[in-house]
Design a protein that fits this description.
The protein has 14 helices and five strands. With 366 residues, the protein is an alpha+beta fold. The longest helix has 37 residues. It is elongated and about 95 Å long.
């Protein structure tokens, strides 16, 4: 089909599909979004916030396997597959066990087997009709920790998967808030001009003169520590870039003939702005939103590293780095590198998508 007969959206999509790294980054983001939504289905540790741990198996290397003695527990409800198991499954890492008569003796896991503590419990703790064979089959299982365990003996892979929710959510919520505020202020400043424009640009310059992290910290302290407070704080610091871009677009588009025609027909200013001007100024806003996704993830990670982000026991990649950065020089760097690499890949993916969108939406390029 001739390019002249294709819509601008069709041409942009065609150019986007031709960019290998852009498509790959978008697929990576989609996969990570799927993982974050079904995190508790995919994570080995299905307790809320992946918070089950045992200090006897703390800081174990990737691939560590241990025998786990499981006690009976209730099955998960449908809602818990999205929110996590409220009541943690009771299980104990052990070295070995033996059944004598109607009791079971097990030795708790210890790096030094000679120091292992033994305990004896009745078989009835596992149910009324439990035998030695059923204990071995149903209640003693080998558990492998693919990425090892953290300093509290928690499964690092599970914490990494659950922690992806914070990074993905901060991106969506912060960008949504920044778009809501930025488009509003940018649109009225660009359309009305005069004192309205002067006031909005004064406000933008004031906010832009304050270092982003310091401003986020100030808003966070004002709103209080918490999950959603961080999202709002980050979003309220990112709208200025959107406002400046939208203002410039509106100032340019409002001089066009179709806007003049809309005014001549007696349309209200609000209808002209939202129905005619803004839809024609969204291309650069989409590009800057992709970059803001990456910025929001980094800012949240910085806040978590400072202890002002998502509060324990909620796992976040920044918090995981904070808890384990000293292990980099203690021979277990993967405890900090795993969340660091995950964050790097996600931020890089958003930046690549943003760059690809910029090229695809550039109508001047071939």
């Amino acid at each position: 089909m001739d390019k002249a007969n294709q819509s601008l959206t069709g041409l942009a999509l065609q150019k986007f599909r031709k960019n290998f790294w852009g498509v790959l980054s978008l697929v990576f983001i989609a996969i990570l979004l799927f993982i974050s939504i079904f995190a508790y289905v995919l994570a080995p540790d299905k307790t809320k916030d992946a918070n089950w741990g045992d200090l006897s198996i703390h800081s174990k290397s990737p691939g560590f396997t241990v025998k786990m003695l499981h006690f009976p527990s209730e099955g998960m409800t449908f809602s818990e597959y999205f929110t996590g198991r409220e009541t943690p499954e009771q299980k104990i890492p052990i070295l070995k066990y033996e059944v004598k008569g109607d009791s079971l003796t097990y030795f708790e896991y210890n790096d030094e087997p000679s120091l292992a503590v033994s305990k004896t419990i009745p078989l009835t703790d596992f149910g009324p009709k439990v035998t030695a064979a059923s204990v071995a089959k149903d209640h003693v299982k080998d558990q492998q920790f693919i990425l090892g365990t953290d300093s509290q003996g928690r499964d690092l892979l599970s914490r990494l998967i659950i922690g992806s929710r914070v990074s993905i959510a901060i991106g969506f919520v912060a960008v949504f808030i920044s778009l809501l505020v930025g488009i509003f202020f940018g649109a009225i400043a660009g359309y009305y001009g005069g004192k309205v424009d002067a006031f909005v640009m004064w406000l933008v310059n004031i906010i832009w003169s304050i270092p982003t992290l310091l401003l986020v910290i100030a808003i966070t302290l004002a709103l209080g520590k918490g999950f959603w407070q961080v999202f709002v704080a980050v979003g309220l610091t990112m709208w200025v870039e959107v406002a400046r871009v939208v203002r410039g677009q509106v100032m340019s588009i409002k001089q066009m003939q179709f806007v003049t025609a809309a005014r001549a027909l007696g349309y209200r200013n609000s209808r002209i702005i939202f129905n005619h001007i803004l839809p024609n100024s969204m291309a650069p806003v989409i590009v800057i939103s992709a970059a803001n996704f990456a910025s929001a993830i980094l800012v949240e990670s910085g806040l978590s590293f400072l202890g002002l982000g998502a509060q324990p026991p909620i796992p976040s990649w920044g918090g995981m780095i904070k808890d384990h950065y000293n292990y980099i020089i203690l021979g277990k760097p993967y405890l900090a590198l795993a969340p660091g690499i995950a964050m790097l890949l996600l931020v890089l993916a958003f930046m690549m998508v943003g760059n690809t969108l910029r090229d695809a939406l550039d109508v001047k390029s071939e």
